[in-house]
Write a structure and sequence with these properties.
The chain has 336 residues and is an alpha/beta fold. The chain is 52% helix and 15% strand. Keywords: Hydrolase, Metal-binding, Zinc.
């Protein structure tokens, strides 16, 4: 492929809104972490093998294998800086990344505060080095239950005054074992504490999961792949302009979408839904945000002007202050 589309995309300011910190760990970095912590360290080939799976459950098991090797604050600092370095190289000017606080508690790690202080040091250094900004979304694991999730959300509320980069909360994990409605009270408490609300919904479960997310106040929807099966829901999402964090490669690699050509991203866009493109867990799926934009162009026929609109959507759907949004939107408008 000619380099011009890539050059345009790297010049195009954009935000990544659905990105898991732990899903940005490359096999090489995983092998390095294993050397730090495992009695029998993984070889690079063994690390790479962990990233091979055929369904969503297999992906969850791979994610578990990666996160159990994150054991110290320095581990988290390392992966945060590497994540932001890679994002900046793709023309990403702002990211809102999930950090799996629920898994930190699940693994019984030391206190979370030193871990977060380390990722903050990495965030500040990367902002100086690359000019990229980052907000954190504290992520809970829905299939662990309501009380563990509430603990994550309360930690976000308790820390956000000290760390303004903490902007919101979310729930990921197995939708089949953690309906959104179960978290209604916890979400209400988080909203009252000034946190923004996101929900993974309609990734591996039908439209009812998306309705549930909307009913507990979700401001942004992660995936929303299954909305395509409910015309009433499609109309509502378009009418309300609810931002959708679309992750095309992720949906195909986890088997949630059987074939690339079946993915509804094009129809969502054409029917006026507020689509943003995201990479989800880029190193685990062999893609990144630049790759998702190229996929939209090459496989779904998005024009340069439409790619510019997708970039604008990502800024508008972010939790950035209005004045920063306006600045980036002007730059997007002038990118050729």
């Amino acid at each position: 492929m000619a380099s011009r589309p890539k050059d345009f995309l790297r010049r195009l300011p954009k935000a990544e809104l659905h990105l898991h910190l732990e899903g940005t760990i490359s096999p090489e970095t995983l092998a390095e972490l294993s050397r730090r912590h495992d009695a029998q360290p993984l070889t690079l080939d063994q690390a790479r093998a962990l990233y091979q799976y055929t369904d969503f459950f297999g992906f969850l098991m791979a994610f578990k294998a990666v996160t159990e090797r994150l054991r110290t604050a320095e581990d988290y600092k390392l992966i945060t800086y590497k994540m932001l370095q890679r994002l900046a190289a793709q023309g990403v000017v702002h990211a809102e990344a999930y950090i799996a606080v629920g898994l930190v508690y699940y693994w019984g790690r030391s206190e979370f505060e030193p871990i977060f202080a380390a990722v903050e040091r990495a965030r500040e250094q990367a902002q100086k080095d690359f000019g990229i900004s980052l907000y954190w979304i504290f992520d809970a694991v829905r299939h662990f239950g309501v009380e563990p999730a509430a603990r994550v959300f309360r930690k976000a509320a308790a820390m956000k005054d000290e760390y303004p980069s903490i902007v919101g909360i979310g729930i990921g994990g197995d939708e089949r074992n953690g309906a959104a409605e179960l978290f209604r009270d916890a979400y209400s408490e988080a909203r009252d504490a000034g946190l923004r609300l996101t929900v993974h919904a309609g990734e591996a479960v039908g439209p009812e999961s998306i309705w549930g997310a909307l009913n507990i106040g979700a401001e942004r929807l992660g995936h929303a792949l299954m909305a395509i099966h409910d015309p009433e829901l499609m109309h509502l999402l378009s009418e309300r302009q609810v931002p959708l964090e679309i992750c095309v490669t992720s949906n195909v690699k986890t088997g949630c979408c059987a074939r690339l050509e079946d993915h509804p991203v094009r129809r969502y866009f054409d029917e006026g839904l507020m689509v943003t493109l995201n990479s989800d867990d880029p190193t685990m799926f062999g893609s990144d945000l630049e790759g998702e934009f190229l996929l939209a162009r090459n496989e779904f026929g998005f024009t340069q002007e439409q790619l510019r609109e997708l970039a604008s959507n990502s800024i508008e759907a972010s939790f950035l202050p209005p004045e920063q949004k306006v600045r980036w939107l002007h730059q997007i408008e002038g990118t050729v």
